[in-house]
Amino acid sequence: MIRVLVVDDHDVVRSGLTVLLSAELGIEVVGQAADGPAALAEAERLRPDVALLDIDLPGLDGITVAAGLAERLPSCRTVMLTALDRPGHLRRALAAGAAGYLLKSTPPAGIADAVRRIAAGGRAIDPRMREEGWTGPSPLTDKEAEVLRLAAGGAHSREIAADLFLSVGTVRNRLSSAVGKLHARTLVDAVRIATHHGWL
């Protein structure tokens, strides 16, 4: 019996997945969670074979949860089930230790098949994501990505400088460097490009 933990912040999606998977032979849904911290806690308590994770979760995003599970509970394999069809998110998820990446438009039988494949030690990547191809690694340094992420949240250079204990000039230099590396016209454009590729 494959023991599965279902993690999604939408009650309807979580309940639907639980019903769907519970109806499959050889699969048992042993628990559910609605946010990142609860997902880690439930996984440690229940020790499932597979965790089915949304990426966009409150508290901790699904990719961070996948990385935490890979470190704390290597026997639990993870598959992302998400609406985010960006190659950058796929790359980050696999780098975090996820064994699968499916889009939420995947037919029910496809989700169950992926759970079985992953529990058996395999991988499951949505064919539509494979066709997207790879966009390559992020051109941004960690420090550039950090200031761009804060700027994306609406913070101004002065606020970012205060948050990171940097001078305003250093923050502006890093933002300017990020805009240049992304071949963006403006800071807003740089945020859009980096977000699209999953680099933030």
Describe the structure.
- By secondary structure, the chain is of the alpha/beta class.
- Helix content is 52%, strand content 14%.
- The chain has ten helices and six strands, in the order βαβαβαβαβαβααααα.
- The chain has helices at 11-22, 36-46, 62-72, 87-95, 108-119, 127-132, 142-152, 157-164, 168-181, 187-196, and strands at 2-7, 27-33, 50-53, 77-82, 100-103, 124-125.
- The protein has a six-stranded parallel sheet with strand order 2-1-3-4-5-6, with helices on both faces.
- α5 (108-119) links the parallel β5 (100-103) and β6.
- The radius of gyration is 19 Å and the shape is elongated.
- The chain starts with a strand and ends with a helix.
- The model has no long low-confidence stretch (mean pLDDT 91).
In short:
The chain is built from ten helices and six strands, in the order E-H-E-H-E-H-E-H-E-H-E-H-H-H-H-H. The protein is α/β, with parallel strands linked by helices. Helix 2 (36-46) packs parallel to helix 3 and helix 9 (168-181) crosses helix 10 (187-196).
